[in-house]
Amino acid sequence: MEPLPVSSDQVAPLHVAIIMDGNGRWAKARGLPRVIGHQRGAEAARRTVQGAVELGIGYLTLFGFSSENWSRPTAEIDDLMQLLRFYLEREVEELHRNGIRLSVIGDRQRLSPAIVRLIERAEALTSANARMRLTMALSYGGRAEIASAARRIALDVAEGRLSAERIDENLIQHYLFTADMPDPDLVIRTSGEKRISNFLLWQSAYAELVFVDKFWPDFGKDDLAAAIHEFGGRERRYGRSA
What Gene Ontology molecular function terms does this protein carry (predicted)? Predict the structure, then answer.
């Protein structure tokens, strides 16, 4: 199908965040191993990143691996980590050539040292790029992020670097993983599930939500454009009266 354009009187989202869901169910429906679903999901991520660039998105955040995903079978986690390593080794140069800055948010302590080194290399290589900011949420949980921010704030108060009276929403924002990014305007979830699953809980307070009845491996630029088109037709009131 042809992408749905955003009309001149619609406001396009600056920051789009996506919960990439349904790799395993996509594979199961086809009688394939789950790892094939994850591989096809990586291909969908590549398509979507390119589509976001072409659609003029400034910030794209992809939920790649949650803190809860560590409870999956060891073999599946190993497959996912291998895919992540492959992506960081093979795709970063392409991101760099396309002017995309890559950053990773989440608990890096649970990732292997080899993967952490690849992440640090990718972030350093692409740090000056400004065409689009691509953020991967890995070993990430929204509640854990807020708890981490609270601990850091408490430590700064205890050590005299911060007065408790200064703590407000704006200050808390500066202690989050996304401190140097705008909050998402649009959050998309694939696979037909209608929940946000501990993803960017603080940041998504006023985001528009779009749920797509399609497994992630089948997602692409046209689906992204359709979600943006739906976003453009909504009225964002931020709690104010119409």
Answer: ditrans,polycis-undecaprenyl-diphosphate synthase [(2E,6E)-farnesyl-diphosphate specific] activity; magnesium ion binding
